[in-house]
Amino acid sequence: DQQVKQNSPSLSVQEGRISILNCDYTNSMFDYFLWYKKYPAEGPTFLISISSIKDKNEDGRFTVFLNKSAKHLSLHIVPSQPGDSAVYFCAARVSGGYNKLIFGAGTRLAVHP
Amino acid sequence: DAGVIQSPRHEVTEMGQEVTLRCKPISGHDYLFWYRQTMMRGLELLIYFNNNVPIDDSGMPEDRFSAKMPNASFSTLKIQPSEPRDSAVYFCASSLVGTTSPKETQYFGPGTRLLVL
């Protein structure tokens, strides 16, 4: 029973265009949603997050949108750069859960020239 | 700060052998997490500790898996006996208690790539 789902295993985008990565969740008790980025042979690193009481958070080229009614969030990268090519994990933090995170399966983003 | 340290980085073993993975969390962090990454299931939480005490081990796949944290600076994940389906990348992560900032949520080590033949 996956509580956090990333239904697209891969995404290919041209450099300079927008990349949109999607994530769905089923548990209403999540208080924060996070995106982690992972390069090959490295551990995931934190990218951006959003509180469950907000609907948008922006950090430079990265924006995360949260639609609570649809239990859906998305990560927008504008403009996409070749260095953005990585696996992106969506994660949700369990409210009161000792910083416990539930991760999705990940989406591999390839940004090509 | 050296970050979360894991060893070994790569491990190749034969089915039935015991495997021990090691982790040194970031100094001062109170939480330690063990994850397994596979193509099919992504990042799965196996177990996590708070102040060296196991809090939730519901993700541990079966009795062949065990984890310990004898002190604040060291943890092990042991698989005995190992099976080919245990082949995966195992990550250790640590975080700081008492913060509400999700930026401090978890810092990951580089992972141990395990191959069981």
Beta-strand percent range of chain A: over 45%
The number of helical segments of chain B is 0
Structural class of chain A: mainly beta
Number of helices of chain A: 0
Calculate the mean pLDDT score of chain B and round it. Answer: 92
Q: What are the low-pLDDT stretches of chain A, counting only 5+ consecutive residues below 50?
A: none
Number of strands of chain A: 11
Radius of gyration of chain B, whole Å: 14 Å
Fraction in helix of chain B: under 10%
Gross morphology of chain B: globular
Cα end-to-end separation of chain B: 36 Å
Overall outline of chain A: globular
Using only C-alpha atoms, the radius of gyration of chain A works out to: 13 Å
Major sheet of chain B: 7 strands, mixed
The oligomeric state is: heterodimer
Question: What is the straight-line distance between the termini of chain A?
Answer: 38 Å
Element string of chain B (H = helix, E = strand): EEEEEEEEEEE
Order of helices and strands of chain A: EEEEEEEEEEE
List the helices and strands and how they pair.
The complex is a heterodimer of chains A (113) and B (117).
Chain A: E1 4-5, E2 10-14, E3 19-25, E4 30-38, E5 45-51, E6 56-59, E7 62-67, E8 72-77, E9 86-94, E10 101-103, E11 107-112
Parallel strand pairs in A: 2-11
Antiparallel strand pairs in A: 1-3, 3-8, 4-5, 4-9, 6-7, 7-8, 9-10, 9-11
Chain B: E1 5-7, E2 10-13, E3 19-24, E4 31-38, E5 42-50, E6 53-56, E7 65-71, E8 74-79, E9 88-95, E10 107-108, E11 112-116
Parallel strand pairs in B: 2-11
Antiparallel strand pairs in B: 1-3, 3-8, 4-5, 4-9, 5-6, 7-8, 9-10, 9-11
